Amino acid sequence: MAKSEMESSPLNILDALSEHQDFHSSIFLTYGADLTFFEDAILPILWDKGCRHNLIFMDGERYIDTVNDLRGSISKIGHRYLVVPIRLGRFQSFHPKLVLFLGIERARLLVGSGNLTFTGYGHNHEVFTCVDWTPDQPEWQYLCTQAWQVIRTIMQKWGHSQEARNMLHTSEQLSPWITHSPQVSTEIQLLHSLDIPLLEQIEQALDGANVQKITVVVPFLDEQAAALNALYEHFRPTTLQLVLQDHHAVGNITTLGGLLKSGNWLKIHHFCQVDENQRYLHAKIYIFETDNVTYAITGSANCSQVALLSSSTQGNIEIVLLRKANNHEHFADLLKHRVNSQSITNLDNLSLKPPDMPPPGLKGEKVQLFDVSIENGMFCASLMINALPDGIVGLQFRISTTPPQFIPLEAFSSGPHSIKVAIADDLQKVLARPQSVSIWGLDSTGQPVDMDCNEHWITHVDILRFEMARVTRVDIDAGERFTDGSIESESEWRDLYETLTKLIELDVAQLKRKKGGYSSQKSDKKTGGEQKSQEKETQILLVDTFDEDETVEQREIEETIFKESDFARWFEYIRARLASVQGEDTAEADPDDIDNPDEQTGANSTNGNKKNRTGRKWTPSQRESRRFINLVRKYITSLNNDEYMQIASIHQKVTYYIVFQRITWLLLEHKVIDTASFIDLICQINAGLFGSPNEDPPVLCPRLRPHLRLVWHQEWEAYEMAAYVLASLFMVNQLVLQIKDEGLLAQTKRQSIWVLAGLTSVVGPPKFAELSSVYSQLAAWYRQDEVDLVLQAEENYMTRLADINQLLDHWSQMVTIALENINDMHLRKLLLQAKIDYNLARFCIFEILQDIEKQTELCSQLISWMRFAGDLGGVRQFAERLVLLLQAQGLSHDAAVSLFAQGVNLFLSGKHSEAAAKLNQASILAEQINDDPLLKRCKQYLNYTEFFLGTSGQIQRQ
Amino acid sequence: MATSTSTTPTLNPVWIAPIYDVTTGEDFLGLRAVQGRIVDYLLPGIITITPRARYYPFYSWLLVEYANDHPKGWSLGDFIHRREQIFALANLAYTAIAQDAPDTTGMIGSRELGKHWKNHRELTRIPLRVDKYLGALLGGYNAYTGVMQALALARLNEDNDNKREVSSKGQELASAFAKAIKQTKYYKERTGYDTAKTIPRAVLEEYGEKCHLSYLSLSSDRDPTLEALFAFDAKDQLPLPNSDMPTRGNMRGTLGLILDMMDQAQEGFHEDEFRRSITYGLCPDYTPYQPAQVLRPILAHWQMFQLREYYVYALYNLWCYFLNWLKCEGRQSLRTFCDHLSEAVDLASLGNELNLKLPTRSLADWPLEIWFNTLLDQQDLPQSDLLGRCEAFARQSQPPLNEDDLYWQSNNSVNLDEPTRYVGTTWILLSALYLRLRGLQAVTSEDAWYWARNGGIRRRSLNRFVEDMSSHLEAGHTILETLHWLFRDYIIAQHTITALEKWHQRSANTFHFNYEDGFLEWVKDGQSGFSASRFQQAYTMLADLGLFEADENWIPTVTPLGQQSLKRVLNHG
Q1: In angstroms, rounded to a whole number, what is the distance separating the alpha carbons of residues A256 and A229?
Q2: Is pLDDT of A524 > 50?
Q3: Rounded to 5 degrees, what are φ and ψ at A38?
Q4: Residues 120-179 of chain B whose Cβ lies under 8 A from any Cβ of chain A
Q5: How far is residue B17's CA from residue B520's CA, in Å, rounded to a whole number?
Q6: Which chain A residues contact residue B155 at CB under 8 A?
Q7: Cβ separation A536–B476 shorter than 8 A
Q8: What is the structure's pLDDT at A644?
C-alpha cells in the first residue's frame, strides 16, 4: 500500500458511528462504559438511523460501577439497549474495544484502544482502525465475520442475557452473510486472546522473520514488565523502543531501570503532546520492523502479562488488529511528531504512576445474579446460590429504588435457579424506569441482610420490544422494497402496506390531535425576488401598539411535529436510500444481470440477502391489490377534503405526494393497475394537490390556498418537488401518447398546464440544471433514460410557457375581481400577495422568454401592487429593475422619467437623501437626452432636497 | 464535531480526533437557568447588561431617527455605532466639566471610548472614529433589544430580521428624549455629525449636559421612562408563569417591592439586604421588612428565586469541594470519596461554631429523620409531626437555621481543605432548605411553587429535591447515604448531563472531571456563588429616575416622586 494512504486525517469516531444509516445492529465491546455518554451521544444517532439492536458487552466489574455511579444519569438501559456484563476471574479483565455495525448489505468494524466513554471516543490519544464491508467491496468481510465469531463465543461462554442472545440471533438472521467464511488475507488479521495468548499469535504471524526493531506505545506496563521482557525474549530485536507518556503512564520505574541496565536493547522515549490540551495517551501500538516488512498491531492490549502473555483462561480478553506492510515507511506517520527523538537515559526524568489497587474481591461469591428481566409482566431472573451465611432464613430480590422494594424469593437452595415471579401492580410502575436489582437475605427478625450479591440492571423486555418496534425492521425492509422497486412476494406487499398505513395519516381526526394547522397561519414572508436581495439597511416601522398576545411560530411547530414523526424518519430513510441505491437499482432491474454467471461469484456470492433477491416483481393477490388501490384512493379523497388540506402541514403534503407517486408507480410496475388506471390516479393526485381547470385559482380555493403559495417555496425546494412534479407529468404524457387517446391527451394537457402554473407560482420556473441529481434518481425510479427524462421534462415545460403565463394572468385577474368583494383585511392581504406571487411567476417567465417589453410592463404593475401591499423592499427592487429594463430598451427618457418619479415620491415621504440620489440620476439622464424640461424639474426638486438636507449634510452624504 | 477529520476507512490504524472544539463555558452544573427564568419573569424589562434607564429613551430616539432619515446605505448598526459613540463622548465630556461629576457607570462602550476620550480630551475637536468600540452588530442596542421588546417599546419584525417596529410608547420616549436635547447645537446639526470626522468638544459638553445618563431625573424623558419601566399601562400582573401572557406588568410589582423595602429600611439597603428580605419578608418574625399586602404575591415568587439561589449555591459548593478533593487525591472512586466524608466531616464540632447543639455521631450512623428533628429542635418549634414542624419553620426567619446566615458562614470558610466547615455547613444549609421548602410547599401559593417545579429532572428542580430527600427520609437512610446520593445524582450525574448538553450545543468539552473505569479524575476546579438577581440594575434605574436617594451608608430615602410611584403601585395592585 502506498505511503500516501497512511497519511489519513484523524478519525472522528462519532462521525464514523453515524455515517451510514442502513445498519440494523450495533455491538460494542468495551472494558468500561460511560453509559450516560452512550445514551446521550451515541444511542440517539443509532436510533434515529433505524439501528434498533444495540448491545454492549463490558467488563463485569465496570458494569457494577454503572449501577453504583451512573444511576442518576442513565435512563434507557434495558429499555432501548442491552448491556451484558462479562465476568472473568479476579485479576482478569474483559478489555477489548471494538464496535461492529451490521446492516443487510453493509458492515463497519472499528477496532481500537478507546473505551465507550467521552474520553475514549473523543478526547484521549487513542488509535482505531475502521474497516468497511459492502457486497461491492467484499475483501474484508472475513474481519467482520471473525469479529462476529468472537462476539458469539463471548456470548456463549460468559453472557447470560437471553434477550441479548435473541438480539444477536435476529442480527444474524438479518445479515446472514456474517456467518459465511470467505477467504482470509494475511494483510490484516484480527487477533484475540480467547484461546491463545496474543504474543504466541503475533509470533506465528511474523513467521520467524528477523525483527530488528520493536516500538511499543502503551499507557500501561505490568509491575514486573514481564510482557516487555517477553517481547524482547521472543523476537530479540536490536532495539525495543518504549514510548511512555510522562506523569500518566502506569508502570514500575525500578523494574524499567533494571531492564535498562540488562542490556542496550531498551530505549525509553517520552510521548510528545501534539496539542495544548493535556490529552491522555491511551493508545496501544506495537510496531515490528523486520528486514523488509513492517507489522503494526493496534487495539486493546497493553504491554502487560494479562494482556499479551495469557489467554482468557488466566488473562484478559483482548482484541487487536495486525496490519502488514511491505516497507518500513508505511506506519511512520502514525508516530510522526509523537515520539521524542531523544531517549531517556536518566529515569529521574520519567514519572510513572503506580497501578490501581486490585479490586477488593468479586461480588456475588455467596449469591450471584446472572440475568434479570421483565417479560410478559413477569419478573424473571437467573441466579446461582453458592453458600448462605448463618442466620439467613429467606432471600428476596431488592430493587434499588429509594426506598428499596423487595420481592420475596421462595426457593433458596444451593445451585442455579431460574425464577419467574408475578409483579404486583404498584411495582409495575416503579419498574417502568430502569432499575437495578440484587439479592438480599432475610434474618429471623425479618430484617433484610446485605449478602454482597452483585447488582444487575433489569432488562425490561416488554418495553425494549415495544421501543424497537416503533419503527421496526419491517418498516426498514418495506422502505428498501419501496425504493428498490421490486416487491417479490405477497408478504412483502403486506409488510409494505402495514408500514404505509401505520406511518401515513390520512385521517382528519388524527391530524386534529396534532397542533399544526393553517387557520392561524400568519406568515407574511417576503416575495422571492426580494429575498434574493441582501439589503443592508434596516426597515423601521412606526406602529401604534404591539400585539402582545403573540401566537407561537406556527411554522416552527409544524416543522418540529413533522420532523419528530416516525413517518419523517422513514421518509428520510427512503429518500437517502433513493439517492444511494440508484446504481444497484438499475443493476437489479435488468433481468440480464440476474442471470449473469459473473454476478453469482465475488461480491454477491457472499451477500446472503442480495443473493436471495431476484428483482422479480410479484403481483399481489386481489385482496392485497385492492387494499393498495384503496389506500391511494383514500389519499386522493383526503386531497379533496378541505378540512384535511387546511390542517395537514406543508411537509406532510409534499412528502405524501412523493410517496404516493411512488406507490402508484409500483402498482403499475407490478401489474396491480393498468396504464389507464395509472394515468387516472396520477391525474387525480395532481388535481388534488394543484387543483384542476374546473376550479378557482389556488388562492381562492380554501383547499389549495394553504400550500400553493410563494411563502412555501423553501419547503417545496427542500423536497425537490419540482422534479417530482415534472417527472410525474412527463410519465403521464408518455403513457397517454402510448395509448393514443386524443381526448385524454387534450385533457391531460390542460391539467398539466394547471399543475405547472401552480408549481411556477410557488417555486418559479424550475431550474433544470439544479435538479439533475434528483432526476437521476427519478430516471431509475421510472426506468427511464436520465438524459431523455431531463430533456423531455424541460421541453414539456418550455413549450407550455405561454399557456402557463396565460393561466397565471387569468388567475391574477380572477383575484382582482375577488378583491373587490372582500372586506376581511387578512384575506385581502392574502389575495393581494397571491396576485403579486402570480405576477412574479409571470415576470420570471418573461425573463426566460426574454420579452423585455412584457417585463417592463409587468415591472411597473408589480411596483404599484407591492406599494399597495406595503412591501417597500419589493418596490425598491423592482423600481431599479424598471430603470435597467428601460435603459436596456434605449428608453432613457422613460428611465429618466421613472427615476424622477421615484425621486419625487421619496422626497414627499421625507426621505430626502434617497430622493436626492434618484433625482441626481434622473438629471444626468435628462441631460444626456437633452430633455431640458425634465432637467429643470429635476433641479427644482434637487434644490428642495438640498434645502432640507442642509449644505454640510448633503456634502457628506454625497 | 471537530474539523478536518475523516471517516473514510483506510484500513490503517489512525489517531482519533477530539470530538469537541472548545473547552470554555459557564454554569457547569446547568442549574442557574431556572433562576434566570424567574428573574426574566419578574423583571422582564431589565437584564444584567442594561443598567441605565436613560438608554431606553435614547435607543427609542435612535430607532425613530433612523426610520426618518439616515445616511444612505447605512445599516441600523452603522447608525447606532455613530450616534452612541457621540452620546458616550458627550457624557464623558460633560462629566469632566460638571461640578457634581455625574456618574457614567453602565455607559456602553466606556472602556474603548473612555480611552479615546482620555487621549483626546485636550483637543477642541474630538475625533469620531471609534466605530469598533463594541463587537455587537447593533452596538449597545444589542443588549437592549430584548428588554425594549419586553416593555413593548420596540421589537424585531417577526417575519423579517431586517425590519423593526417602534410602538407609540417607544415613539413617545423618542420624542421626549428629542425634546430634552432639542436646544443643543448637536441636535440641530446631528445629521452632519453622522458622517463628520470630528466634533467640537464644546458641542459634546453642551449635548452631554442634556443627555447625561445621570440626569434623567431632571429631563423631559423621565416621566415616559418611568411609565415604561413600571409598565403602569400593562393589563396584567403576575400572569401564570407558564402562560404566554406578557409579563411586562411584573415590572411594576418588582420595582414597587424594592421601593417598599427602601421605604421601610432603617439601615443600609443593597443587594444582600434585598436577598434577605425576599427570603424572609413573608415570615411574620422578620422585622427589617414586612410587605404591603398587594406585594405579597410578587414577594412569594421572589422568595422562590432566592431559595433556589441558596440551593444552587450549596450544590456548587459541594461540587467545588469534590473537585478539589479529586485534585488532591488523584484518580478516585465515588465510594472512596464517601468514605472520606464519613471520616472527615464532624458535624458536632461544626455545631459549636454555628450555635447548634449537635451530638457527636458518625455520618454513617445518623438517620435523616433524627438529624432533621435535631435541627428543628434548635428553632424552638413545638413538637409535632415533621411536616407540621416544617410548616412552622417556613414561617420563621430566626437563626440558627437561617439560610442566609449559613450562606455567609459557608461563603466565609473559603478553605476547601476544611471538610467540616465546607461540606458540613453546606449540608446544614441544604437541610434547612429542605425543611423550609417542605413547609412552604404546603403554605405558599401554587403560582409561586411553579418555580419550585421548574427545571424538572434535568435542572434538579427544588420540588424534585424535596421529593428525593423525602424518599431518603422514608427509606431510613443515614446522612452519609444521603450525601452519597447527592454527590452521585446532583453533582456527578448533573455535571455529566450538563457537560454533554454543552457539548451538543456548542461542541464544547466542559468536563471538570473524567469518568473512566469506575474512577473519577480531576480536570478543572469549580467555582461557587450566586447568579445575578438584577437587583443592582433595578436599583440604579430607580436612582436614575430619581425615586430614592441613598446616603454614604446606603441608607435610602424614598423621594416624593418615589412615594408617589410606590403609592401608584400599591393602589394599582
Answers
A1: 10
A2: no
A3: -60, -45
A4: 152, 155, 157-160, 162-169, 171
A5: 22
A6: 546
A7: no
A8: 84
Closest chain B residue to the Cα of A544, Cα to Cα: B168
From A121's Cα to the closest Cα of chain B, the distance in A is 7
Q: What letter does residue A116 receive in the DSSP assignment?
A: B
User: Which run of H or E residues covers position A258?
Assistant: helix A253-262
pLDDT for A773 equals: 74
ipTM: 0.88
Q: What whole-number distance in Å separates Cα of residue B464 and Cα of residue B290?
A: 30
Q: Give the position of cell 457624557.
A: B91
Q: Which residue of A has its CA nearest to B489?
A: A72
CA distance A771 to A722: 8
Cell numbers that stand for B296 in this block: 405579597
Identify the weakest region by mean pLDDT among A503-512, B310-319, B409-418: A503-512
Which of A1, A77, A546, A549 to probe the B interface (max B CBs under 10 A)?
A: A546
Contact residues on chain B for A127, CB-CB shorter than 8 A: 13-16
CA B114 to CA B95: how far, in whole Å? 12
- Reading the block at residue A373, the C-alpha cell is 428481566
Over chain A, what is the mean pLDDT? 83
**Lowest-confidence region among A197-211, A616-630, B52-66, B297-311:** A616-630
Yes or no, beta carbons of A540 and B64 under 8 Å apart? yes
The per-residue pLDDT of chain B, averaged, comes to 93
Q: Are A912 and B69 inside 8 Å of each other by CB?
A: yes
Is B14's CB within 8 Å of A15's CB? no
CB atoms within 10 A of CB B355: 10
Torsion, Cα B249 B250 B251 B256, to 10 degrees, reads: 110
Separation of alpha carbons B286 and B410, rounded Å? 22
Within A33-140, residue ranges assigned H as helices are 35-37, 43-48, 60-69, 118-122
Residue among B187, B149, B143, B142 at smallest CA distance from B169? B149
Hey, are the CB atoms on A403 and B8 less than 8 Å from each other? no
**Nearest beta carbon to residue B163 from set A123, A541, A545:** A541
Q: What percent of chain A has pLDDT over 90?
A: 44
Residues 348-407 of B with CB under 8 A from A: none
In B, which residues are within 8 Å of A130 by CB distance?
7, 9-11, 14
pLDDT by residue (tens digit) across A132-159? 999 888 889 999 999 999 999 999 999 9
- Residue B367, classed as helix, strand or coil, is strand
Output the CA torsion A592→A594→A595→A600 (10° steps). Answer: 140
Lookup: cell for A336: 510522526
- Quickly count: other Cβ atoms within 10 Å of residue A204's Cβ: 12
Of A12, A70, A321, the CB nearest to B7: A12
Candidates B18, B5, B14; CA nearest to B509 is B18
Q: Across residues B163-170, what is the average pLDDT?
A: 92
What pLDDT was estimated at residue A582? Answer: 43
Mean pLDDT within B407-417: 83
Cell 523486520 belongs to A290
pLDDT for A362: 63
Own/partner long-range contacts of B231-239 (Cβ < 8 Å, ≥24 apart): B231/B45, B231/B151, B231/B152, B232/B568, B232/B572, B233/B169, B237/B298, B237/B572, B237/B573, B238/B297, B238/B298, B238/B301, B238/B447
pLDDT over 80 (residue A534): no
User: What helix, strand, coil percent values describe chain A, rounded to 5?
Assistant: 50, 15, 30
What are residue B253's phi and psi, to 5 degrees? -60, -45
- Per mean pLDDT, which range of A472-486, A731-745, B265-279 is the poorest? A472-486
Say if residues A33 and A56 touch (Cβ distance below 8 Å).
yes
In a mutational test of the B interface, the residue from A402, A872, A954 whose CB has the highest number of chain B CBs within 10 Å is A402
